[in-house]
Amino acid sequence: MGQGGEPHRSTLTAVTDLRPEDQKLVVLARATRARTGAAQGAALRDLDGRTYAGATVDLPSLHVSAVGVVVSMALAGGSRGAEALVVLTEDEVADADLAVVRDFSGPGTPVLQGTPAGKVEAELSS
What we know:
The chain has three helices and eight strands, in the order βαββββαβαββ. It has helices at about 20-35, 65-75, 95-105, and strands at about 10, 40-45, 50-55, 55-60, 60-65, 80-90, 110-115, 120-125.
């Protein structure tokens, strides 16, 4: 966490700085977002190495961020926490989404933020 309880944000220089398992999350999040046409795509790798991909749900009666979707999927699958997440969006990752990750995995879980095209621009921490 940064000063004042804000999420820690540090810039990555390029997607090539990512580990192969994080690049896989980028591919999954990008494909899911493209397939659904959603505002956000996200992918999560849990502590057992299983991956989950999801997109924003925006229905008249239900609104869930892509982070909320993948965390819900992981919980429903019996996961005990996340090793890493990727969120692809035109906006910044919401503090509420970082709080969801923190509730699920504890503080310090890496959350990679990228563009809809899959270019990772920042690494956040839950």
